Amino acid sequence: MEITRGVIQKAKKVVVYGPEGIGKSTFASKFPDPVFIDTEGSTSSMDVARLPRPTSWEMLLQEVDYIKNNPHACGTLVIDTIDWAEQLCIEFICAKHQKDGIESFGYGKGYIYVKEEFGRFLNRLEDVIEKGINVVLTAHAQMRKFEQPDEMGAYDRYELKLGTKTSSQTAPLVKEWSDMLLFANYKTYSIAVDDKGKKHKAQGGKRVMYTSHHPCWDAKNRYGLDEEIPFDYAEITHILTSKQKQETRQPVENKMPETKQAAPETAGGKNEEPAGSFMDIPDGVPEQIEFDPGTGTVKEADQKKDPPKPDMSRSQTFRLNSYIPKALQDLMYEKMVSEEELLEAVYRRGFFPRGTPFGNLPDEFVEGCLIAAWPKVLAVIQEIRSNYEIPFE
Question: Rounded to whole angstroms, how far apart are CA atoms 27 and 159?
């Protein structure tokens, strides 16, 4: 066994939560080279790089895998917000088990399933951290009555808006996972406006963030920050240095040409796509994510002898019918899966008789099978594609 000593420099795991409108997204945009996964559509008026808004839990996981497999894409991954991402997780669990809602499981079993799935999601984010990419999760705050077991009476305290039930266990997972849990709020004062001191009004409203635990809120940090500091990225910029970013991007720059090589051949002579790949350039992603001028990769791409691949975007050749649910369309567009291929996979698995149109598929089957188990559906489609006959060689 090898014993190591000293500080280990690695990317940071930051959670920022607070009331709506306080500036959590703007704060996160100050981190080194950020790319947003905007689950609630709150960054449309901000000049930031973003991936397509995920319409399903499976799509969110694929976007995280894309960043993990392409560490040159950014220096910070921002999920804005994590409580909206939790709703996608709950919808995924309900569809997978064919339940109307999380309470339909009974005895708190639904929250256990959500906790387990969310734990696997945090493990995915841990893989992103290992690639040298910071991860920032933003969340809304909720106020809840809290009563300590050894004290009389109850009081209000701010918490992460993850689960509204006491049986929900996702908030503790996120708090334990983070290196910094920062609570942003408006600091107000109550001022007496009469001689008797019976009437008061609020003044102040300065934005601050709290970095240590308090009876009235959750917060923590591992870097010796003051308990109360201005809500400004400059207060923590010394923790996230540019040196870390340079160290992570240098080896990636040298390896970029290798990521465009053909997939390895199997024993049968057919090319297989590398496991965990996402997509070359997702719909709606700015070009600087794929080709960063700071690394010189644009120039390398222009010098390639291979002709560029045709742009098969939604607005051009490849299109899907509007009656296909948006969440399923997003997954199909990623791998250019046609409606015919999807139905062929359904027929081959024996779910419905051959010739059944998509409109006759029950909503429960579309959400609970096609969307929730998309990797398995895609595996059947790839098997179908491997048997296509090539008319001209």
Answer: 19
Backbone φ and ψ of 53, nearest 5°: -65, 120
Three-state SS letters, 33-89: CEEEEECCCCCCCCCCEECCCCCCHHHHHHHHHHHHHCHHHCCEEEEECHHHHHHHH
Whole-angstrom distance, CA of residue 265 vs CA of residue 138: 42
Q: Which residue has the tokens 């917060």?
A: 219
| Fold adopted by 13-244 | Rossmann fold (3.40.50)
In the chain, CATH 3.40.50 covers: 13-244
- Count, residues in the chain: 393
Question: What ranges in the chain are assigned the alpha helix state H?
Answer: 24-28, 57-69, 82-96, 109-130, 170-177, 242-255, 287-290, 297-302, 326-335, 339-348, 363-365, 374-386
Closest CA to 88 of 127, 126, 62: 62
- Alpha carbon 47 to its chain centroid, in Å, reads 19
CA dihedral 297, 298, 299, 300 (to 10 degrees): 50
Alpha helices in 201-354 (DSSP H): 242-255, 287-290, 297-302, 326-335, 339-348
Are the C-beta atoms of 72 and 249 separated by less than 8 Å? yes
Measured CA to CA, the distance from residue 148 to residue 315 in angstroms comes to 57
- Both structure tokens of 86: 């939790």
Quote the tokens at residue 56.
Answer: 């399903």
Helix (H, G, I), strand (E, B) or coil at 209: strand
Q: What is the pLDDT of residues 223-279, one digit of tens each?
A: 889 999 999 999 999 888 543 444 444 443 433 334 334 444 444 444 444 333 333
- With a cut of 60, say whether residue 67 has pLDDT above it: yes
Mean pLDDT estimate for the chain: 78
Side chain identity at 267, as an amino acid letter?
A
Residue 339, both tokens: 């409606």
Helix (H, G, I), strand (E, B) or coil at 177: helix
pLDDT digits (tens, 9 = 90+) for 133-153: 999 999 999 888 777 776 666
